[in-house]
Amino acid sequence: MRPINLFDFEKLAKKTLTKMACDYYAGGAGDALTVLNNKQAYNQILLQPRVFIDVSQCNLTTTLLGQPISIPIIIAPTAFHGLANIEAEVATARGADHAKTIMVMSTLSNAKIESVVNASHMPIWFQLYIFKDRGATAALVKFAETAGCKALVVTVDAPYLGIREDDVRNQFSLPAGLSAINLAGYGADQIVKKQDESGLFAYFANQIDPTLTWKDIAWLRSITRLPILVKGIMSPLDAKLAVVHGVDGIVVSNHGGRQLDTVPATIQVLPEIVKAVDDKVEILVDGGIRRGTDVIKALALGAKAV
Asked: Which residues are catalytic?
């Protein structure tokens, strides 16, 4: 079968990936209700078509943080691409280069930052988890900046990792030959098998700092010149605080339903957040986007890109 849409790719993934990898990529927290709601919420928004408008020349280009991109779609940060492709995030970066858009690479990538940056002529942004060890975090930020990353995307919705039951059942771990390679020397880089639990959950419990507050954005600003976006905003109140604390952008995100189950779909809270921000920073949204019509709806409700 030649895949022609994202649903086809998901079907192929189930045939070609290991069960542990497929469950990891597709899984959500709890009953995965938010995973489902992220998708269904788009289906409940209807488009109002207009006619007799010249649409012979359609321009999909836009800018993010001043960077021109070919389409209002960028690649969100996801971990462990090596579970699906031997070149891991390097292959993804080549795809971003071909599409002439931005890739956000994960802290938990299987490929080195410099290899990913060098694989694309387009900007690579770096998604950051802030670790208990601030020295290790600062070193990682410096590493990303030196390698040529153009922005930091700080994940703020994961003080604790959501309980993804499929990962617990599978005792998720990285196979031999794969590691969170950019964390080598900065704590632990191996996601190893743990009896009766997810190895990733155990790793996060040891590394991620649950004491984070807005003051840590000021600390981060003090150690880097890169633009800072915060990913994981779901409340207009938090959006206003993000603006007050000087972020350069907001990603409306519920972590793809992988953190806290039964929260609203991102598209449902987007309009309130757009209103709260009042054009002071650029807003992106992720979660549940499967079709071009979904992108249109997100843009119509105030997102700069998805």
From this structure: 255
